[in-house]
Automatic annotation (TrEMBL), chains A, B:
GO terms for biological process: diaminopimelate biosynthetic process; homoserine biosynthetic process; lysine biosynthetic process via diaminopimelate. SUPFAM superfamilies: ACT-like (SSF55021), Carbamate kinase-like (SSF53633). Belongs to the aspartokinase family. PROSITE patterns: ASPARTOKINASE. It comes from the Bacteria. It catalyses: L-aspartate + ATP = 4-phospho-L-aspartate + ADP. This is Aspartokinase. It holds the Pfam family ACT_9. It is an enzyme of class 2 (transferase). Catalyzes the phosphorylation of the beta-carboxyl group of aspartic acid with ATP to yield 4-phospho-L-aspartate, which is involved in the branched biosynthetic pathway leading to the biosynthesis of amino acids threonine, isoleucine and methionine.
């Protein structure tokens, strides 16, 4: 029998009605003689509600206690979904991260998966049960509960699929991967198939359907992914293999990310040792840096801009306040109203001119550019918030990403 | 240093505001140089809300999955209370039943405590931390989550106090133990001190302040109990030792229990083997029988009435339908609108006439009596629902249980 790992996100299990619908979908998959492992997120806004409770008690919740609190969200979903499956006559059992022995590092809210002990899950599957696993959570080797941070449930699902040599289906509230968020680019096309690499670029740029961390893991272990709308007959997007360059389109999609902020440090010593210090300090505080731009001024001092996730703003503020003298920073500021617009396309590798064309389109639309970064298959522009819709439209229509222009 | 185990019930931690107030009380106890272990229940109506969610998904929730679901209630409380303590500058850590290794039987919703591994809790106390433990929950030796059923948090608290050789303080929403529920008997007096035995009789009869199971455990291990209102300066009730018969009052209190139903079986074979069968079947289904009344009719057949908790009504119904032919039952019925009124007093042992006086009072008030049972220090009358208030008043006023008559 084939093992299939299915992941249902929070919006797919947002109400007891939706949970019952999802249970019926799972039952169908089971009847196609598959062994099914289901990963569920917390219902709808549960995580936000729990954070609100914590916020009502303290301004600075301890990270261990926050994980203790957040873990309950998924535990509620797995119990309810398992009951719903049993109500349909399916044999099913729920498992928390701790019961699954999904072992993680002890870095609360950002734990990384170390290993998964398959003995319990295999035992349950062998007894013909559908196994319903709490996503997003794990346990350390000294029995502390952890959460995996952003994209945690996706990552749980892919990690389990990798260990079980299974296909991984991610069910969400959109039909699949689009060339661009249709709310931003009306008429954006759905992709029937894409590669891990393109999806990573799309996802890390805010496509929001699946977390890049999960896709990276899928790529590493070559786990076949299928992304589709839950409880829908519409065909989703298959993700596997690598880019077929012969067929590669110039631009696959556009992604928009509003989650970052820009930090600028002025007058650092022009010394690459100092740069290493800055990024090392940020890494040690577990702050992910995304875009980086560095320039020398006339006097030979260095100005540095970089973007980090908005959620880390306080940590970064403290860190810079602490080190600024060591680094020789004369002045620094945070610009939080920024948006990153990225153009992804494997064809860029072989066909030059995408950057030039986008720069021209942005200039014609008088869209200010704060920073630019490029990789092999993507180019990203940081623009002031408010300009992203115009940017997406002008790029989307000119690169054939909409149905109308196709 | 003394170890104190404090238990806060659901109404004491019903809102984040109340959690913060409770944290301040705990901080005060800690500052009196005690080592503090806190047991908390789920916030307010959380357990009911979770049951409602389960009910929206299925009519017959699996008991294992129900425990998976219910366990989240206390997990939320411990995380929030710990955060609130940390916010006040206290060192604190939360532990679930599983992390505490509070090992139970695998009987879901009615698990019994087998043992508690103190290593984790001692480690945390030695590091100066207040340990906040999830009440009501435990774990089996194969890592399944359980709940302890009614009075579970009280039982967790007393069991921990017994193992830690600690005093156990139960904080609730009433000032202590009263001669009778003041809502039923206006002017009912608060007791400053009572014995385990009297409290067991009071509690098992529905006094609702502490579960008899917890008091029995306290008595067994001679754990000193203190029952008081949370966040209040009012003196509570101390419970320790045994009854001092010299001083024993004739009647300590009156309790009312509305949680039972009465089952009547007609025309059983008059054979004590059959009776053993009936009660053995009920025991195997984990249905607690309370009052029992048995009578032979003229033809030599036996009629049997007994009371069981209302929550077990469906189980009992199935069981009787299954066995009635074996038992020779010609007819049977359930009377659910019944109330048990009990009079508790150690003085009854040495001073006869309490029963006679109560029978006379009930007859004068024209209160129908469905069943009667007696023990050394209590007498209970089952009456039709609706008559209990009159019964309590007439007994209370005539036995000096109110301030007015004192």
């Amino acid at each position: 029998m084939n093992i299939i790992v299915q992941k249902y996100g929070g919006s797919s299990v947002g109400t007891t009605e939706k949970i019952k619908r999802v249970a019926e979908e799972i039952k169908k998959s089971k009847e196609e003689s598959n062994e099914i492992v289901v990963i569920v997120s917390a219902m709808g806004d549960t995580t936000d509600e729990l954070l609100e409770l914590a916020g009502a008690v303290t301004n600075k919740p301890d990270s261990r206690e926050l994980d203790m609190l957040l873990n309950t969200g998924e535990q509620v979903s797995i119990a309810l979904l398992t009951m719903a499956l049993q109500d349909l006559g399916c044999k099913a059992v729920s498992l928390t991260g701790a019961q699954l022995h999904l072992e993680t590092t002890s870095s609360h809210q950002k734990a990384r998966i170390k290993d998964i002990d398959l003995s319990r899950i295999k035992k349950e599957l062998n007894q013909g049960r559908i196994v319903v696993v709490a996503g997003f959570q794990g346990v350390t080797d000294d029995e502390e509960y952890t959460t995996l941070g952003r994209g945690g449930s996706d990552t749980s699902a892919v990690a389990l699929a990798a260990k079980l040599d299974a296909r991984c289906e991610i069910y969400t509230d959109v039909e699949g991967i689009y060339t661009c968020d249709p709310r931003l680019l009306p008429g954006a096309k759905k992709l029937n198939h894409t590669s891990y690499e393109e999806l990573i670029e799309m996802a890390s740029l805010g496509a929001e359907v699946i977390h890049p961390r999960a896709v990276e893991l899928a790529q590493k272990y070559q786990v076949p992914l299928y992304i589709a709308e839950s409880c829908s007959k519409a065909e989703g997007t298959i993700i596997n293999g690598n880019i077929d360059y012969l067929e590669a389109s110039l631009v696959t999609g556009i992604a928009v990310n509003r989650d970052d902020i820009q930090i600028t440090l002025r007058d650092l010593e022009a010394d690459s040792y100092i740069l290493a210090e800055v990024f090392n300090s940020l890494a040690e505080a577990e702050i992910n840096v995304d875009m980086i731009s560095q320039l020398l001024d006339k006097s030979g001092r260095m100005n540095l801009s970089f973007t980090i996730p908005e959620m880390d703003i306080e940590k970064a503020r403290e860190l810079i306040a602490f080190y600024r003298k060591d680094w020789g920073v004369s002045d620094w500021w945070i610009r939080s109203e920024v948006v990153k617009v990225s153009v992804v396309g494997p064809g860029m590798r072989t066909q030059p001119g995408v950057a030039a064309k986008v720069f021209k389109l942005l200039a014609q639309s008088e869209i200010p550019i704060l920073m630019v970064t490029t990789s092999e298959i993507k180019i990203s522009w940081l623009v002031p918030a408010g300009y992203e819709e115009e940017a997406v439209k002008v790029i989307g229509y000119n690169f054939g990403l909409t149905l109308e222009k196709d």
